[in-house]
């Protein structure tokens, strides 16, 4: 059979399919750099000044987050698998519940985050929308980097009895990106708008349920979800502290 000339784009597509984790890291890095380039200069200055003024506390939060997500290297895979299968298989699973959980889990998706960022911008919260989108892009990059470094397989690869809802998720399992994003949004929105206790409880309950859905649909272990919740919450707190002082001066 004669060799088919696939061209430059064809070779690029083949490379991306074979090296998806690296491709995602490169793509997210490029996206973050482009976003920073087009970010208003006063916003870049505000973030830099905020980072300098809170560098010790920011470093502590990042170290804490990395220590928390390092739980994946400890013993306990059997317990993790047992807890996952309890969430994934226990009890009745009617079609309406499957569809509801599959829809609810999208709250932690990138499309939902971009939509919320756009709504914030269109409603006049320009500075906060920049903060929200910048934090989202940076969080995605951190999550993909951790997935690449930890290299933990999805539950449905190791556990044959796993019940998957919808399409099987690509990439690695640890940490849960959807859960990270849900807790990041809950933390950032609650602090920025100084919401009441009941609204804050609703936001975090929603984020918690997103984590539950990730196990229900067969995409993540419990420790993936726990790590995502810690990382997302810490990232939201870090975003508020880094940009808080600069945002006040700009506003």
Please outline the helices and strands.
Blueprint: H1 7-18, H2 20-38, H3 41-53, H4 55-69, H5 77-89, H6 95-104, H7 110-122, H8 126-150, H9 155-158, H10 177-192, H11 197-216, H12 222-250
Helix pairs in contact: 2-8, 3-12, 4-12, 6-11, 7-8, 8-10, 8-12, 10-11, 10-12, 11-12
Task: Explain this structure.
With 251 residues, the chain is mainly alpha-helical. It has helices at residues 7-18, 20-38, 41-53, 55-69, 77-89, 95-104, 110-122, 126-150, 155-158, 177-192, 197-216, 222-250. α3 crosses α12 (222-250), α7 (110-122) packs antiparallel against α8 and α10 packs antiparallel against α11. It starts with 6 loop residues before the first helix and ends with a helix. Mean pLDDT is 81; it is low at 245-251. This is Membrane-associated phospholipid phosphatase. Residues 127-240 form the Phosphatidic acid phosphatase type 2/haloperoxidase domain. InterPro entries: PAP2/HPO, PAP2/HPO_sf.
Global mean pLDDT: 81
User: What is the string of SSEs from the N terminus onward?
Assistant: HHHHHHHHHHHH
How many E-type strands?
Answer: 0
Assembly state of the chains shown: single chain
Helix fraction, binned, reads over 70%
Question: What is the 3D shape?
Answer: globular
- Integer count of domains: 1
Rg is 20 Å
**Total of DSSP H or I helical runs spanning 4+ residues:** 12
- List low-pLDDT spans: 245-251
What structural class do you assign from the helix and strand content?
mainly alpha
Main β-sheet, in a few words?
A: none
User: What gap, in angstroms, lies between the N and C termini?
Assistant: 66 Å
Strand content: under 5%
